[in-house]
Request: fold
Amino acid sequence: MPRPFFLVLSRRWLWAGVILMGSLIVLALYGTFPLAIYTLNALPSEILYDVMLDPGHGGIDPGGIGRDEIYEKEFTLDIVLRMRRILETAGLRVGLTRDTDRDVSHLVKNGTRHRRDLLGRYKLMNQARLGMSIHTNAARSSSERGAIVFFMKNSYIDRIYAQIAFDELERVQEMNHQEIVPRDNLVLLKAKPPVLLIEVGFITNEQDLQKLLDEGFRENVAQALSTAILKFFAWQEGEQSES
Reply:
């Protein structure tokens, strides 16, 4: 007896879905960079953490370099480890893109090391409700100094998150810009959850470098940014309770 038409059609749709999903995964891993980003956002991601913290650079990538071969990657990891302690004490589930001196290029199988590392961090960001990437800045002019808060352009939620982070960070560090900075060309900001990229100071400026070398300053930055995350979650809960 021939199978009912609707069963044949359902099976065809099932196979079409499987083929489409496989194609999306291949494109994410091997396709062009922008297409890989959009594809990764289309794939389902299990939420494992409340917040994902990203210490910029790591491993063979030192990030910005200050005098006497002082590396950005060391400051960013130190600040993020402090943030993890603070946020876990507050009861949050905290994920890190790295917790040692390494990159995360092993998470993606093809492309340049830099591309694989960036996509690896991006994939991890999608496992959390909120994200923050910590960096120090570098400039040709040694007079450039202060912190910068970048957020995803045209995103209302990200703007709220960024302003909270700006207000908290301004309490402990001079700001390079007097307001939050919208961007649409920073890969991590395109992840599913709200994500900020924070430049906590310029490693190429002597005043900022002296601050970064001070353990007390790094602790203050970690406290400020952790407070911002907690305040943003409180704001979100307030918004949801009113809706």
Notes: The beta strands are 49-55, 65-66, 70-71, 94-96, 128-137, 148-152, 181-183, 195-202.
